[in-house]
Design brief:
By secondary structure, the protein is α+β, with helices and mostly antiparallel strands. It contains two helices and nine strands, in the order βββββααββββ. It has one domain: Creatine Amidinohydrolase. About 20% of the residues lie in helices and about 25% in strands. Strand 3 and strand 4 form a beta hairpin. Helix 1 runs antiparallel to helix 2.
């Protein structure tokens, strides 16, 4: 659809306890049972531009799962607002804020990052860099620093909340810099 023939990262559909897993893990295939939570994470390429999109859906009526779904959506909105209000925000500060949002809502943050850089395929890469191109606890660089060619960078914000005791997680991911100058 929409002319998409390639994806820049693996396509992820996770259910049941697999929703606890961060991106790098390769969870076993499962059948989605009734009254479960499922999340999707896709990275299509549109006209040589990367996209990245993650959403969580509840199959059934479990109130805790519906709360988790609402909480991650609200956390994304709050995280985006924090990014907009703080032009000099470093990646570490936004990561810390995502952690705070999880705790405030009664969840644990589920991933080692809270987002990443995105752009023209393939996006900017520095060999071995697992920090400065991510919303990462050790990234103290301004997220709005231009790339090596002086272009505006575009960021994805990822929200991954989990409850390990109840074996559920939810994931919400979207472009953070839409509407930014």
């Amino acid at each position: 659809m929409y002319g998409v023939t390639r994806h820049w990262h693996k396509r992820i559909v996770r259910a049941e306890p697999n929703t606890l897993s961060p991106y790098d893990e390769n969870s076993p295939d499962l059948t989605v049972p009734e009254d479960d939570i499922v999340f999707l994470d896709f990275g299509p390429i549109f006209a040589e531009w990367e996209a990245d999109f993650g959403r969580t859906y509840v199959v059934g009526t479990d109130p805790l799962k519906h709360k988790l779904c609402r909480d991650i959506e609200e956390a994304f909105v709050k995280g985006k607002r924090r990014f907009q209000e703080r032009p000099d925000i470093p990646g570490a500060e936004l990561y810390e804020y995502a952690q705070e949002l999880a705790k405030e809502a009664g969840w644990e943050y589920g991933g080692p990052i809270a987002g990443h850089l995105i752009g023209v395929y393939p996006h900017e890469k520095i060999a071995g860099d697992k920090v400065t191109l991510y919303v990462h606890p050790s990234n103290h660089n301004r997220m709005r620093t231009p790339d090596a060619l002086g272009r505006k960078r575009h960021w994805i914000l990822e929200i991954h909340f989990v409850d390990r005791a109840k074996n559920i997680g939810g994931f919400y991911e979207e472009l953070l810099t839409v509407g930014q100058s």
